[in-house]
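I am writing to request your help with a piece of structural work I have in hand. Here, with my thanks, is the record as I have it:
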Amino acid sequence: MKILALVFSLSAVAFAPIPVMAQQTPAKPAAKPAAKPTTTTKRAPLARSAAKAVEEVTPIEEDSSVNLTEADLVVAQRVYLGNIPCELGSAVEIVPAKRQGFFIVQVKNMRNARYYMHPVESRTGAIRLEDPKRGAMWLQLGNKSMLMSQQLGKRLADECMSPEQLTLAGEMKRNPPKGLLDPVDPPPAAAPPAPPANTN
């Protein structure tokens, strides 16, 4: 009987439900949020009026290494200022800069055409302003002016005339100056000698 009881107790232990241990797997790291697609948006080009406004308020780098002489300052006083009309509906505006003898020269309706200019000695007697950093030159003659880009090798504005130049150009049309190849006028005839005084 003892053996039979022992067999029953062993069989009960053998068929008892065994708790299943859940395998502990390492926790997976939280998934990273999907990266947002980067979209590069190109900026639309500025309208001409907006670009002109930006250009006007952008300061021009001043060249402080240039020292003007007294002769340069005298020439600077003869530069025509204001809005000067040019051919093909263009215009050049010249205003004095903060520094004495220097000018800001700007072409109407042309981007990147603003210059910081100062007088340069001219052998021909013409008034010449230059911006050596940007490679531009303003040449003021008696009857017209022009703006040239030495970097581009072309004229940016031509046949520019202030009111004073317009008046002189009209006078030159009415009375054209003699050319170098025109014949020279003969000298005026000498007056006949006075008769000798009568001593009798």
